[in-house]
């Protein structure tokens, strides 16, 4: 009878841990082919997670067996971490495979930039730089990232231009060829749609922990499909607007402000579930406003990965489609649990599920808000 309530207790354990832990984001590879034959490769990574040997399946370092080693590395200052990287670099380079035609390009270290993130509760991003010499007459380049390092978004570009193409690589896959001796053939619209739909879905399940919790907050108040879909549609429409405006450079707000406010929106929805106890037209307005805020959060991942110039609009739209599919999947899973538990039509559904579940969601949201706000001012 209380299976759904137990689910929310488990969610507390899952969702609180990333607040004080360190998120492991996929790497971003930026590969430049400089006129004259030089190749520059820049990797944006969570360096401490790599050195500690945390497997890609862990998105939260506290869940990994190497958590203690990671925390020790995270406590190092930038100079100390750079020294640790010097020892790790030969091993790391062996997992970077830049194929020029049929041969692996020899890469050498070309420096490191470590962010000045002083809040030890937060992960920091390091940029690792490598260079190599392009053989004369080279025709195509392909890139792969060692499976033990995780997924990677790889950007290819010529000179200082914007990335000509972006590929999302998983499980050590080799990228399609990037043509060096002629104009780059753009990725097909269908391929772009497939890749960015998957990216949007993954950004919700399993990586969008705060967005999942927000959607669960919407779900809790009513099991009626009509009002629930109206709320999710309002939320989707709103985050699509700000995501598009942010990607096009019309609006911009630092994640240092966006993330605490997103946490506050989660707390608000849970509290409203308890206080109001029913849907209303004003709730749709509030959800729309919160959707505008969440869209700014979604824009962070697209800014990091980038959008292909040839299919910019297709990539943007299908990323939103993937996000929507992820949200609907969360709702379908929650509905299934409610109906299988027999609580859907129980007279005490509000007392046993809505109130305690919403209270737990609000507690997580408020805890996130405090932690993120302290990080903002600390």
How is the topology of this model organized?
Blueprint: H1 3-20, E1 27-34, E2 38-45, H2 47-52, H3 67-74, H4 78-93, E3 96-100, E4 103-104, E5 108-114, E6 126-133, E7 140-145, E8 152-158, E9 165-169, E10 178-179, H5 189-204, H6 209-221, H7 225-247, H8 255-275, H9 281-305, H10 312-341, H11 349-377
Parallel strand pairs: 1-8
Antiparallel strand pairs: 1-2, 2-6, 3-4, 3-7, 5-6, 7-10, 8-9
Would you mind describing this structure in some detail?
- The structure is a single chain.
- With 378 residues, the chain is of the alpha+beta class.
- It folds into two domains: 27-185, no CATH class; 193-377, no CATH class.
- Helices cover 54% and strands 15% of the residues.
- It contains eleven helices and ten strands.
- Strands 5-6-2-1-8-9 form a six-stranded mixed sheet, covered by helices on one side.
- Strand 1 and strand 2 (38-45) form a beta hairpin.
- Helix 6 packs across helix 10 (312-341), helix 7 (225-247) packs antiparallel against helix 10 and helix 8 packs antiparallel against helix 9.
- The two termini are 44 Å apart.
- The relative contact order is 0.14.
């Amino acid at each position: 009878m209380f299976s759904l309530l137990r689910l929310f207790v488990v969610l507390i354990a899952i969702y609180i841990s990333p607040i004080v832990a360190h998120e492991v984001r996929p790497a971003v590879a930026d590969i430049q082919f400089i006129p004259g034959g030089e190749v520059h490769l820049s990797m944006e990574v969570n360096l401490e997670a790599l050195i500690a040997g945390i497997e890609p399946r862990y998105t939260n370092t506290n869940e990994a067996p190497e958590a203690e080693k990671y925390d020790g590395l995270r406590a190092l200052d930038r100079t100390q971490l750079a020294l640790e990287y010097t020892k790790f670099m030969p091993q790391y380079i062996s997992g970077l495979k830049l194929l020029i035609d049929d041969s692996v390009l020899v890469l050498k270290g070309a420096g490191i930039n470590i962010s000045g993130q002083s809040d030890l509760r937060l992960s920091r991003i390091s940029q690792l730089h490598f260079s190599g010499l392009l053989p004369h007459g080279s025709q195509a380049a392909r890139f792969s990232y060692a499976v033990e390092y995780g997924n990677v978004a790889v950007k290819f570009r010529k000179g200082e231009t914007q990335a000509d193409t972006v590929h999302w690589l998983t499980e050590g896959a080799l990228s399609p060829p990037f043509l060096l001796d002629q104009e780059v053939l753009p990725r097909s619209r269908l391929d772009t749609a497939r890749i960015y739909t998957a990216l949007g879905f993954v950004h919700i399940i399993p990586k969008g922990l705060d967005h999942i919790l927000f959607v669960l907050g919407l779900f809790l108040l009513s099991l009626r499909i009509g009002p629930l879909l109206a709320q999710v549609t309002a939320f989707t429409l709103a985050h699509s607007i700000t995501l598009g405006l942010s990607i096009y450079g019309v609006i911009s707000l630092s994640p240092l402000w966006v993330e605490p406010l997103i946490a506050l929106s989660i707390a608000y929805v849970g509290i409203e579930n308890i206080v109001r106890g029913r849907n209303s037209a004003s709730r749709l307005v509030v959800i729309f406003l919160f959707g505008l805020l969440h869209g700014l959060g979604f824009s962070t991942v697209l800014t990091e990965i980038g959008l292909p110039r040839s299919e910019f609009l297709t990539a943007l739209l299908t990323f939103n489609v993937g996000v929507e599919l992820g949200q609907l999947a969360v709702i379908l899973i929650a509905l299934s649990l409610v109906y299988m538990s027999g609580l859907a039509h129980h007279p005490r559904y509000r007392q046993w599920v809505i109130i305690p579940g919403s209270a737990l969601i609000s507690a997580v949201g408020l805890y996130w808000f405090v932690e993120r706000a302290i990080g903002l001012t600390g």
